[in-house]
From TrEMBL:
Residues 1-23 form the signal peptide. GO terms for cellular component: endoplasmic reticulum; membrane. Transmembrane segments: none annotated. This is Long chain acyl-CoA synthetase 9. GO terms for molecular function: long-chain fatty acid-CoA ligase activity. Residues 27-364 form the AMP-dependent synthetase/ligase domain.
Length: 544
């Protein structure tokens, strides 16, 4: 039975396994993949010096993948199953310190690095999270749609089998009934599976929120007025008291107004974990209100096996990531260059440093980076220096406020936190994604905007603006002014300084997807790659 479950797991994740193995040199000797991935494997066979065996899940192996031609042995998965039945062997159980996974970082801030995770690291985080999520068990159903090469997904998919829960596999493009890759009139993954638990990244939740608000605004009339009233009442209740947030009024509004919204995600969601990037307060409140479920923000990194901080399910405050999880220690260290100190008032501030059983051994064949980021103190505790800046509230809850690598100094000495500004501007309805850029020899910032096709097209239609395609619309001065005005509005609401707010913007019509290489699987921007790809556009924004 376990073997059959493993086969299903491979069928569901075979393309992810392929990308995990061959995105960077892990020096593996055995590859498990499908027929489609095997064709790609053939194209790069000259670069694979270590591969000796290929196990193809599909029985129809491509003719051009012959063993003699490429120096590897090809076996079908059915043959491996037969081999296992005919030659049973005792399990070779791993030790806690044995490396279980080499997972590469997203590469959003530079070249990806292979993080070596031990079995002990993974078990530590999984066991810690089991104590945090309320009543998690065999009745829970989890919708898996993030890449398996994302640490949040890896932990989630190890957690559910450990508690006896079920997992259903989907994709971001087939998540809801209205997703791009779902045939009209058929169900999306969430509607078909009706999950109780979800893990997500802010970009996905932002899109769900924007989609709901667009539908409500398009419907207008009495429906919109009732929705706005219900939303305002629920928002006041959540900001007021715990009973008001989840009492009788919640039940009534859910039944009369939010039931249809909850149906988008299957109607049974009881808990959501969000990680990978800061979640905006607006989106957090949307989830609390419209989906009627608590959402916990988690903070961790690949290097800490996703472990770090995790907000309590009954914490309704926005913008915070909770206290340290049971297997982690967290401390702050001074960062004088950024102006952050552990003696700051009213809260200590500094670079976030994580220790504990979940901290990984280091980077695969990269001793220099390992020594730079991992330190062992006089007590023998191993610490990872995250590069993120945080502050501790009086109740012991951590808040992420900055990132060292995102800090750019402008010509007159002002420091700009690129990530902080991007998070504030992402709320604009015209923005699907955005990258702020700051030239140290200039006095202002600029931005590249991956526009929301539906929002910009809808605005143009209302304005009576004629255009042949979205690319032409993005070039029109009226469209640029409208999007820029929306960004200025959000910047003002977020109380950004004038020098932080982009003075000029460039609208881009082609979506930023993992396939284009401009964003990660979790939709985080790859800053260096975007900068190089659009260097000409950035230069023009600065008048060069």
């Amino acid at each position: 039975m376990q073997f059959l479950m493993f086969k299903f797991y491979l069928l569901a994740r075979k393309s992810i396994l392929f990308h995990m193995v061959f995105s960077l040199p892990t020096e593996v000797t055995t590859v498990i993949c499908g027929r489609k991935e095997l064709k790609s494997l053939v194209h790069i066979s000259g670069q694979l010096d270590f591969v000796k065996r290929v196990i193809c899940i599909d029985n129809d192996v491509p003719s051009d993948a012959s063993s003699a031609q490429h120096g590897w042995t090809i076996t079908s998965f059915s043959d491996v199953e037969k081999l296992g039945r005919e030659n049973p062997v005792a399990a070779d159980l791993p030790l806690s310190a044995d490396v279980a996974v080499i997972m590469y970082t997203s590469g959003s801030t530079g070249l990806p690095k292979g993080v070596m995770m031990t079995h002990g690291n993974i078990v530590s985080t999984v066991s810690a999270v089991m104590t945090i999520i309320p009543n998690i068990g065999k009745n829970d159903v989890y919708l898996a749609y993030l890449p398996m090469a994302h640490i949040l997904e890896l932990i989630a998919e190890n957690l559910l089998p450990a508690v006896g829960g079920s997992i259903g596999y989907g994709t971001p493009l087939t998540l809801t009934d209205t997703s791009n890759k779902v045939k009209k009139g058929t169900k999306g993954d969430a509607s078909a599976l009706m999950p109780t638990l979800m893990a997500s990244v802010p970009a996905i939740l932002d899109r769900v929120r924007d989609g709901v608000f667009k539908k409500v605004n398009a419907k207008g009339g009495l429906s919109k007025k009732l929705f706005d009233l219900a939303y305002a009442r629920r928002l006041r209740a959540i900001n007021g008291s715990w009973f008001g947030a989840w009492g009788l009024e919640k039940v009534l509004w859910n039944f009369f107004v939010f039931k249809k919204v909850q149906a988008i995600m299957g109607g049974r969601i009881r808990y959501i974990l969000c990680g990978g990037a800061p979640l905006s307060a607006d989106t957090q409140r949307f989830i609390n209100i419209c989906l009627g479920a608590p959402i916990s923000q988690g903070y961790g990194l690949t290097e800490t096996c996703a472990g770090g901080a995790f907000s309590d399910f009954d914490d309704t405050s926005a913008g915070r990531v909770g206290p340290p999880i049971p297997c982690s220690y967290i401390k702050l260290v001074d960062w004088p260059e950024g102006g952050y100190s552990t003696t700051d008032s009213p809260m200590p501030r500094g670079e976030i440093v994580i220790g504990g059983a979940n901290v990984t051994p280091g980077y695969f064949k990269n001793e220099e980076k390992t020594r730079e980021s991992y330190k062992v103190d006089e007590r023998g505790v191993r610490w990872f220096y995250t590069g993120d800046v945080g502050r501790f509230h009086a109740d012991g809850v951590l808040e992420i406020i900055d990132r060292k690598k995102d800090i750019v100094k402008l010509q007159h000495g002002e420091y700009v936190s690129l990530g902080k500004v991007e998070a504030a501007l992402l709320v604009s309805p015209f923005v699907d994604n955005i990258m702020l850029y700051a030239d140290s020899f200039q006095t202002y910032t600029v931005a590249l905007v991956d526009v929301s096709h539906s929002a910009l097209s809808e605005w143009a239609s209302k304005q009576g603006i004629a255009y042949s395609d979205l690319s032409e619309l993005c070039q029109k001065e009226e469209a640029v002014k409208e999007v820029h005005a929306s960004l200025l509005k959000e910047a003002k609401k977020a109380r950004l300084e004038k020098f932080e707010t982009p003075a000029k913007v460039k609208l881009l019509s082609d979506p930023w997807t993992p396939e284009t290489g401009l964003v990660t699987g979790a939709l985080k921007i790859k800053r260096d790659i975007i900068r190089k790809t659009f260097q000409e556009e950035l230069s023009k924004l600065y008048g060069k």
